[in-house]
Amino acid sequence: MTMHHQEANLGVPRVTRILAEWVVNLQNDEIPTAVRREGVRTFVNWVGCAVGGASHETTDRVLAAVMPLSGEKIATVLGRVERLDPAHAALVNGISSHVLDYDDTHLKTVIHPAGPVASSILALAERRPVSGADFLTALIAGCEVACRIGNCIYPDHYTRGWHITGTAGVFGAAAAVGKLSGLDAQKMCWAFGLAASQSSGLREMFGTMTKSFHPGRAAQNGMLSALLAEAGYDSSERAIEAPRGFANVMSDKQDYAAITEDLGTRWEAALNSYKPYACGIVIHPAIDGCIQLRADLGDRVGDITSVKLRAHPLVLELTGRRYPKTELEGKFSVYHATACALLHGDGSPTAFTDEMVNDPAIIAMREKIEIETDPQMHEASVDVSVTLTDGNRVQKYVERAIGSAEKPLSDRHLDEKFTRQSTLVIGAEATDRLLAAARNVESCSDVAEIARASMPPGTASH
Amino acid sequence: MTMHHQEANLGVPRVTRILAEWVVNLQNDEIPTAVRREGVRTFVNWVGCAVGGASHETTDRVLAAVMPLSGEKIATVLGRVERLDPAHAALVNGISSHVLDYDDTHLKTVIHPAGPVASSILALAERRPVSGADFLTALIAGCEVACRIGNCIYPDHYTRGWHITGTAGVFGAAAAVGKLSGLDAQKMCWAFGLAASQSSGLREMFGTMTKSFHPGRAAQNGMLSALLAEAGYDSSERAIEAPRGFANVMSDKQDYAAITEDLGTRWEAALNSYKPYACGIVIHPAIDGCIQLRADLGDRVGDITSVKLRAHPLVLELTGRRYPKTELEGKFSVYHATACALLHGDGSPTAFTDEMVNDPAIIAMREKIEIETDPQMHEASVDVSVTLTDGNRVQKYVERAIGSAEKPLSDRHLDEKFTRQSTLVIGAEATDRLLAAARNVESCSDVAEIARASMPPGTASH
How many percent of chain A have pLDDT more than 70? Predict the structure, then answer.
């Protein structure tokens, strides 16, 4: 077995070393403007989501558990009064940014890259001051590393049951923290080795608080990997491609070229997308269509007697829950999402609260919905039609839903998404200041200021 | 795929729940005396190894990296003056107890159970006082959980490239910390879920400092799992057996009966063994044989002209390194170990230092060694013969090496092993006190006192 493995590995390129050298040598001005702009959008979206999730019960519980273990409390828990040491802050911010299922998505791999990467380096920035320009480079490098490693092993790795946001994300966090810490190529390889030995997170945990734990722990683990390597703690220098390395052990597919090809010219980090709605992405076309239909209907929304949805079969397979009872179940119910979009025009986190999921008017609307699946339809399309009490039918066809690769969220829409989430947690005034600070990250001289701007009003600044 | 997985899972017993209920309900007096006695031996051996590894460079480096992140420094780093918060102490003690490759072994699965389990609960005991009797129950329960989960997936899981001490050990640590924290069965299930989502560690890291990181991080991750569950952080309740749970994702073999069969009557924890020598277990027969031969030869050791070893083929496959240059390479060189046993009668950590590996007399003896492999031989057997300058041959056949399942280390030998390691680090007097304290763990009213007894002389007590 050993011999077979070793022979099979003879022709494998040293992707760990290549990736490490690329990250170490990357200069701020080597990243094209459009890619840096997407990096800013990734950051803005992540800050909004982390603040949005800050008041969630999941965040309360992890804070209760880790507060007694925290070191010097110099790092901000976004959107909260509590502070933690940088490693625990990375954990908690990574959790809160994912808990509403509202964060960014690299669509090719379904990785949510900012959770692991941004959470680790923003927390680090409160220990080691960093400029916005360097921060943005580390963020983009980290997302690039996570997504390229994801491309190498997706889909087999994900199909097998790994939550790829955690398993690939830990490499991105290690790369980003290592970049900001000035690791040389050898130590960056060690950081990847330590990351590989912490790569974990199972899809079985979906539907529980442990799902959000994955990006948070990946952020914290990636940070620890880089800090250990910095202290001279050594590791394998071919952790990704070795016969018993990450890619062979955790996937049946290994496309190493996907890691190294066009490195620095083709940017996976620039393919990041942002959810317009706080739920499973396959429901987004239905919500988009219903919000548009609602605008057409005006007051006649109250006259709806039946709703017919035609969509790709994945919609029912993944989100066919007819009788959701909780927030989390609501996020996986196309019936609930459709009803809420028609009645309230809402697909944001406020549409998926326990209260809303159990609201009688929503439940009544849910009963009127019928869904027909059609494998010929694109996953980003939907056809919605409603019949009214007067017998009239109104119909809306969505070719590509907002937030899809072909129809990305505009900056304005991203700002609205940010504001809607953040205002609920830290109020309108602090939200405006925070959004402006996040949007201007690249010209910021000390990124820690952005983290601190997320503290609820009245919190004593540190 | 999903449907297939789900169907395939219909007949699977709820092993996560069964294991959780068993741990939660286990009473001190339900563990037979012989099993508790083995638990004490496991503990004594682990304390000795952790103190023995405390002055190793690997321990220095992890301490340098984590010290700035540490919370309230209430927990002892065994054998050192530094203190850390309990989670980081679990990490560092787990590392130092493994770094000399001298710790315990559950031979069926090659799991080193005490590293993850004892490291987590001894550190916890400095935050939450615990009696020796309760501590021992948690230690045995944790080892039982780790070894049974190991039995479920071994050997496929290990062959694939997972370092099973980390991947199964994290469940043991979660069980032990959860037991001492009084978790109910539901929260214990959550702790197992969180452990499953942190289960990690690759064999690719063998030969680097990251190998020892695995038991250390498993101890820390297991502790975090139990503390999160305690705070109400929820998770899957069938993390081990679910279609996309631990056993399916991380192994092609799932023998669930091995987890639940004879639970509480057959004790895997009692099958723990302790290495007499500080190196790969396949070399132990050779060392044993050479030490015996050396006693027979007396002064004639200097007259050896050639050495012939007949052993199982695994010996050369795993430890065939002819020209080791470093301590770690020495541990994987049957040539070095044989030479050192013949010349110095030593198989303890002092036999595997960089200095010893590069010693000219040892190198000269290495050159005289020839090895013949024989697949008919038992892995615990060896045949050694030496030829002397006068042409005479002296031979020694070892049927079963010391430390093997059939020839376990006596208490006296364990004490010697402890003393030899510990004296080098904290001196003879402190070693005597510490050994006595560890041996008396079961009658101790506050286990934290044992941890504190490991501090080097002159250290101010807390």
Answer: 97
Note whether residue A462 is domain-resident: no
Q: Pick from B197, B210, B233: which is nearest to A201 by CB?
A: B197
Chain B environment of A230 (Cβ under 8 Å):
65
Q: Looking at the partner chain, which of B194, B227, B249 has a beta carbon nearest the beta carbon of A162?
A: B249
The answer to whether residues A19 and A166 belong to one domain is yes
The Cα A415–Cα A418 span in angstroms is 5
Q: How far is B455 from chain A (nearest CA, A)?
A: 22
B170 CA to centre of own chain: 13
The answer to whether the Cβ–Cβ distance between B202 and A71 falls below 8 Å is no
Domain count, chain B: 2
pLDDT, tens digit, 9 for 90 and up, residues B301-319: 999 999 999 999 999 988 9
Contact B197 A197 (CB under 8 A): no
Rounded to 10°, the helix A132-153/A15-25 angle is: 160
Cα–Cα dist A381/A106, whole Å: 19
Query: Per the domain annotation, does A158 fall within a domain?
Result: yes
Is residue B116 in a domain? Answer: yes
- CATH number of the domain that residue A268 is part of: 1.10.4100.10
Claim to verify: residue A258 and residue A302 sit in the same structural domain: no
- Domain assignment present for residue A435? The answer is no
Q: Report the C-alpha gap between A242 and A261 in whole angstroms.
A: 19
Q: Which amino acid is at B15?
A: V
ipTM of the complex: 0.93
CB contact under 8 A, A213 and B194: yes
> A196 and A262 in one domain?
yes
The CATH number of the domain holding residue B338 is 3.30.1330.120
Q: Do A238 and B204 touch (CB under 8 A)?
A: yes
Q: Please state, in angstroms and rounded to a whole number, the distance separating the CA atoms of residues A193 and A233.
A: 10
Examine the domain organization and report whether B191 and B242 are in the same domain: yes
Q: In this predicted model, what pLDDT tens digit does every residue of B410-421 receive, in sequence order?
A: 999 999 999 999
Query: pTM for this structure?
Result: 0.93
Identify whether the C-beta of residue A135 lies closer than 8 Å to the C-beta of residue A441: yes
Q: Name the residue facing A193 among B203, B210, B236 (closest C-beta).
A: B210
**Whether pLDDT at A1 is above 60:** no
Confidence category of residue A9, pLDDT binned at 50, 70, 90: low
CB–CB of B69/B88 below 8 Å? yes
Q: What is the pLDDT of residues B5-62, one digit of tens each?
A: 444 566 899 999 999 999 999 999 999 999 999 999 999 999 999 999 999 999 999 9
Query: A319 is in which domain, residue-wise?
Result: 281-398
Sign of the torsion formed by the C-alpha atoms of B225, B231, B237 and B242: negative
Please name the residues between 172 and 191 in chain B that touch chain A, using a CB distance below 8 Å: 190
Whether residue B113 is found in the same domain as residue B256: yes
Single-letter amino acid code for the residue at A307: V
**Segment 212-241 of chain A within 8 Å of chain B by CB:** 213-214, 217, 224, 227-228, 230-236, 238-239
List the 306-325 stretch of B: residues with Cβ below 8 A of A.
317
Same domain, A270 and A286: no
Out of B58, B62, B242, name the one closest to residue A204 (CB): B242
Q: What is the pLDDT of residue A10?
A: 65
Instruction: Please state, in angstroms and rounded to a whole number, the distance separating the CA atoms of residues B28 and B19.
Output: 17
Query: A292-308: per-residue pLDDT in tens?
Result: 999 999 999 999 999 99
